[in-house]
Specification:
InterPro entries: Ala_racemase/Decarboxylase_C, Chorismate_II_sf, CM_dom_sf, CM_II_prokaryot, DAP_deCOOHase_LysA, De-COase2_C, De-COase2_N, De-COase2_pyr-phos_BS. The strands form four sheets. Strands 1, 10, 11, 12, 13, 14, 15, 16 and 17 form a nine-stranded mixed β-sheet that branches. An eight-stranded parallel barrel has the order 2-3-4-5-6-7-8-9, surrounded by six helices. It has a five-stranded mixed β-sheet with strand order 19-18-20-22-21, sandwiched between helices. The longest helix has about 35 residues. Helices cover about 35% and strands about 20% of the residues. By secondary structure, it is of the alpha/beta class. The chain folds into four domains: about 230 residues, Alpha-Beta Barrel (TIM Barrel); about 120 residues, Lyase, Ornithine Decarboxylase, Chain A, domain 1 (Beta Barrel); about 55 residues, no CATH class; about 150 residues, Periplasmic binding protein-like II (D-Maltodextrin-Binding Protein, domain 2), CATH 3.40.190.10.
Length: about 650
């Protein structure tokens, strides 16, 4: 059960969705229980909520999947749902979607027109396979629900009439590349009356008997989904036991596997939306509470005029006030409830919208350039992240490459955004790899798999290696190869800076001279203990202190430490550009001894003002004060020195 105290600790993350994953699992198991003893398959409808972690919970509980796009199919498979439990429905399947669905070996495709059937047959023939199909029948039964989610009347776009359904079955029966194995129907969503469903069960069971008698080898009887929940106190959901009994009665004597496709009924009651009051205001007619969630995040009230229960997370003992709860979107439709009675609201109060586990996040949009919300899960008494909140780059990543903006600063800003995404993706991959290694270790398996490693490198390894080694070499060399002077091994330089530059070898002193004379764009100096390099460091200190040269970065590969050097003001600076090198420029003679005593050179590149832990001989320098030099984050920070 969701704990208000735990939720309150997450207030800084509003707005967010929070799902009770234990409740979702139990919601699915209730369906399994009422169908116990019957051949059955419970296919969760991903349209209701397709969060991968939520799907994984259902997959482990034994759920199948009802999908209406190839991307939902991919989600189901990625979450661990077996292909033989996946159904692909939808009136407008694309050719590439049908191809992929057949290749993945799903249970069956739900056919909704003769043209679609012929396309499936053509693709199956090209693949030299037999496509398992179901035919969706429109029984022309009024489901007594909102017209937007009515799907079983002839005026609706879904399915085919019984007469055409029979023709489709007979055509498929004769085809060498089609296998008609299921009859499917679905009359609508948010159904609260059992009588329309009973009527549909009886009508479609009669059709199934006719088809079996006609030689169609049906194996599945798919009743669709649509069971509603009580969003309001006056509403009463259909009993699952009564629902199952009605199906059993209608299909008595039919040796078919019963399939149902619940979505809302499994997840709706087990999700809440937490939002914060931003402002309140009143006029002569209304009291408004403006919250930080918008209709783009939660569409049901605007689209279906749906009403969801809402309450304060932390109750107040104050007189009730009638509020219109509205969001920040630039439309009057951005209203979640009108005239709701709540204690007097103040900025910062947390509100809880209940029963939003279905058709909440799954219907969200980016209207007003608003990112999708954070999604959290409550499981086993703990709250964990199921989906990160999107950031600005998530909104623009597919548009960045099409800008015509001019100027280096603009393009560097774009690169910074891309780098953030690369970092996120790589960190996510590393986390998964670490989890796999942990799982292998616990299972007593070998962590190292050379075959798998070779496969990964063949797919992405070479590209990632190239990106890593060339980021610095290419970042300022997009027009021409850069000239780089190096006072280190050529191989070290190539490893650090990539391949796209002209390389010249120098000793330290001639390297500095070449940089100042612009014979090279920048230089790479290896820090070693030899007298020549020590003299080079002392000379470098003089150049830096007189603002002729600057050091932008330091690198360490194994035991080799290198400095990237350029003319003052030439090298691209990172943000923030606070730099520190902890010695006195007037005491140049002390630099050599100090560097030789330093076992970890990274202490030379931390932001000024940070407390530092460094393994050096502090008796060597007479005094220390900062000189601007380089930035790096590979330091250990401590509470004292």
């Amino acid at each position: 059960m969701l704990d208000p105290a735990q939720i309150a600790t997450l207030a800084h993350k509003t707005p967010f969705y929070l799902y009770d994953l234990d409740g979702v699992k139990n919601g699915f198991l209730e369906f399994k229980e009422v169908f116990k003893g019957q051949k059955s398959l419970i296919c969760y409808a991903l349209k209701a909520n397709s969060n991968l972690a939520l799907l994984e919970v259902l997959a482990k509980a034994g759920a199948g999947a009802d999908c209406v796009s190839i991307y939902e199919v991919r989600r189901a498979l990625l979450a661990g749902i077996a292909p033989y439990k996946v159904i692909f429905s939808g009136v407008g399947k694309l050719e590439n979607e049908i191809v992929e669905a057949l290749e993945k070996g799903i249970l069956f495709l739900n056919v909704e027109s003769f043209e679609e059937l012929r396309l499936i047959e053509q693709i199956a023939k090209e693949q030299n396979t037999k496509a398992r199909i179901s035919v969706r029948v429109n029984p022309n039964i009024d489901p007594a629900t909102h017209p937007y989610i009515s799907t079983g009347l002839w005026e609706n776009k879904f399915g085919v009439e019984e007469k055409e359904a029979v023709q489709i079955f007979m055509f498929a029966k004769q085809s060498a590349f089609l296998e008609p194995i299921a009859l499917q129907f679905h009359i609508g969503s948010q159904l609260l009356q059992l009588s329309p469903l009973k009527q549909a069960f009886e009508k479609m069971a009669a059709l199934a008997r006719f088809l079996l008698a006609s030689g169609v080898e049906l194996k599945f009887f798919d009743v669709g989904g649509g069971l509603g929940v009580a969003y309001q106190d006056a509403q009463q959901p259909i009993s699952l036991k009564d629902y199952a009994k009605a199906i059993f009665k209608a299909t008595k004597g039919l040796d078919l596997t019963l399939v149902c496709e619940p979505g809302r009924r499994i997840v709706a009651d087990h999700g809440v939306l937490i939002t914060k009051v931003q402002y309140t205001k009143s006029n002569a007619y209304k009291n408004f509470a403006i919250v930080d969630v918008g209709m783009n995040d939660f569409m049901r009230p605007a689209l279906y005029q749906a009403t969801h229960p809402v309450h304060l997370l932390t109750p107040k003992d104050t007189a009730p006030v009638a509020y219109d709860l509205v969001g920040p979107i630039c439309e009057s439709a951005d209203c979640f409830v009108k005239g709701v009675s709540l204690p007097k609201l103040e900025r910062g109060d947390l509100l809880v919208f209940e029963k939003v586990g279905a058709y909440g996040a799954s219907m969200a949009s980016h209207y007003n350039s608003r990112p999708n919300l954070l999604e959290l899960g409550f499981e086993g008494g703990e709250i964990r992240t199921l989906r990160e909140r999107e950031d600005f780059f998530d909104l623009i990543e597919h548009e960045m490459g099409h800008l015509k903006g001019e100027g280096i600063a603009s393009k560097r800003a774009q690169i910074d955004q891309i780098d953030q995404t690369l970092s996120k993706l790589l960190n996510a991959r590393f986390a998964l790899s670490a989890q796999i290694a942990k799982d292998k270790h616990e299972a007593g398996l070998s962590v190292y798999n050379p075959i798998r490693e070779a496969e990964i490198f063949a797919k992405v390894g070479g590209q990632l290696e190239s990106v890593y080694t060339e980021i610095l070499g290419v970042s300022r060399g997009l027009v021409r190869p850069e000239k780089v002077g190096v006072a280190t091994h050529a191989n070290t330089a190539r490893r650090l800076l990539g391949q796209r530059f002209s390389l010249k070898l120098y000793n330290p002193l001639t390297l500095f001279e070449s940089i100042l004379l612009k014979n090279v764009d920048y230089g790479l100096l290896e820090v070693r203990g030899s007298s020549a390099h020590a003299q080079g460091l002392e000379t470098l200190v003089e150049h830096v202190s007189q603002q002729r040269l600057e050091v932008a970065h330091s690198f360490k590969i194994g035991e080799v430490w290198c400095l990237l050097i350029g003319r003052f003001g030439f090298l691209a600076q990172t943000s923030p550009t606070r730099r520190a090198w902890w010695f006195a420029p007037t005491k140049v003679q002390e630099v050599r001894a100090l560097l030789n005593s330093c076992k970890d050179p990274y202490f030379l590149a931390i932001p000024p003002g940070c407390l530092l832990e460094a393994n050096i001989d502090l008796e060597l320098p007479a005094h220390l004060q900062p000189l601007m030099l380089g930035t790096y984050s590979h330091t250990r920070r401590t509470c004292g020195v």
